[in-house]
Automatic annotation (TrEMBL):
Keyword Cytoplasm among UniProt keywords: yes
Name of protein: Ferric uptake regulation protein
Family: Belongs to the Fur family.
Signal sequence segment: none
Keyword tags: Cytoplasm, DNA-binding, Iron, Metal-binding, Repressor, Transcription, Transcription regulation, Zinc
SUPFAM superfamilies: Winged helix' DNA-binding domain
Entry-linked PANTHER family: ZINC UPTAKE REGULATION PROTEIN
Organism this protein belongs to: Oceanisphaera marina
Primary gene name: zur
Length: 148
């Protein structure tokens, strides 16, 4: 799906939700949507400065907070990085597989994992308010290239 099409979908959702999709938020959205894999806030800042020379770290962090709140991106907690989500117009369970070798991040949407996790939380009297399930290892490509 093209970045332009994703931007149009996001713009429509923001209008429906009554939130402002400012030029800076749009720029950060466009940058992260065009990025392959997870990206740090400072890498985004470097790229944003090409569009907005006066951009500072708080500029990016405020935009990222907005994009997170709208479900347009996910935070990869263990990498302190951000990942674009093409499924932002629907609520979905999310689990991440992270390759320690090449940095590939694969987003999964497994309802069974989500339900089992929720069940375990409930059985332990725990209410989940924010969830991040991340697993680290090696992707198929790095695993096949690894010496035996």
């Amino acid at each position: 799906m093209s970045v332009q099409h994703l931007l149009e979908r996001a713009d429509l959702l923001c209008k429906q939700r009554g939130v402002r999709f400012t030029p800076t938020r749009r720029n950060v959205f466009t940058l992260i949507a065009g990025y392959q894999g997870a990206v740090s806030a400072y890498d985004l800042l470097d790229r944003l400065k090409e569009l907005e020379p006066n951009a500072k770290p708080p500029t990016v962090y405020r935009a990222l907070d907005f994009l997170l709140a709208q479900g347009f991106i996910h935070k990869v907690e263990s990498l302190n990085a951000f990942l674009f989500c093409e499924h932002f117009d629907e609520h979905h369970p999310m689990q991440l597989l992270i390759c320690n070798q090449c940095g590939l991040v694969i987003e999964l949407h497994d309802e069974a994992i989500n339900n089992a996790f929720e069940r375990q939380a409930q059985q332990n009297g725990f209410v989940i308010t924010n969830q991040s399930i991340e697993a680290h290892g090696r992707c198929r490509q790095c695993e096949s290239a690894a010496p035996r």
